[in-house]
């Protein structure tokens, strides 16, 4: 059994190995100049990671120690900026020593979700704490879904400590490696950035765009042209929000997305699943679609001047909009996501079509479907690289999702475990395939 203090050294060795991979650095920091990103000396970085590791093992009034830390000189941050659009720099009158006890004392003041501890590397003394950096909470929207943009994290090393022995190291917002339970892992790629996920949400996108075009034909004033993928992006954010709420509830859940044309069949007796609690086919079942359409129409109207400029609008304009109607519609979608997530607390699957029409909940996947012995574990977003693994050792939800996707090749199942892990399952390249979905790669998020 290895001693715990060897883990930080192994994590640093892993980081240095990734640093030699030019293709990796080009992906996580595409705007870098050759040689512009420099790691601290190996011994200094080992000191930083080891100190963070030791601090993670301490407790604050029976609560685990959690904090974010950035290695960047204080003068590189503007003095006048602050959240929600910038970083608020607060420099201590004198530097503080960098050790696990000082991190333990500072962690309650440096709220994990809002503030980072700033450190710099002194040539003689090594790492020292210069103060606090207030980031605000918008960075969480990239994890949990939402339209608000956060100020980009500068291309510096950022360390997340999320629990005992749980450490992640990033370049800015991009994960390099995580240490969790003694295991060092590469970042999990975000499945929602895949082409196949975008195509899966195309029914919603196509339908809302068709309705949007009809609405603009009746409009009297100018409407801006919208990005063709705008509807799909709203759908992606909704699914992220549903997943995040279920994960935070700690009870787990199963979401099943089916082709829209199967809606009537699933509501009747069928060989795939039994839906205990069904919703009638009224407009309320399609609230997400109607909200998406209203967002599209509203965005086109308030950006009508872009039509004269020949400019297309889309996600960027949406997330940066200060329009009250857009804010209300975004809040409405957030509430729908919370409602759907709450339905997962009942045993069984929440069943939704790919046009985001809520069919019902308490879905029981038929036990008569053939069991699945081997599944493919996707190692990239598109499933081009996979490894075959036995389906043994997973829970009932996972096995049910595998059986369903083996029989219904157009289905997508999202399994959220009580331990907050997330699998996205579908039929891919002739076999049941799953992706581990942890957007940030940060343990606990």
Automatic annotation (TrEMBL):
Identification of the protein by name: DNA integrity scanning protein DisA nucleotide-binding domain protein
Superkingdom of origin organism: Bacteria
UniProt-listed InterPro entries: DACNV, DNA_integrity_DisA_N_sf, DNA_integrity_scan_DisA_N
DAC domain boundaries: 259-439
Species this protein is from: Geomonas anaerohicana
One Pfam family from the record: DACNV
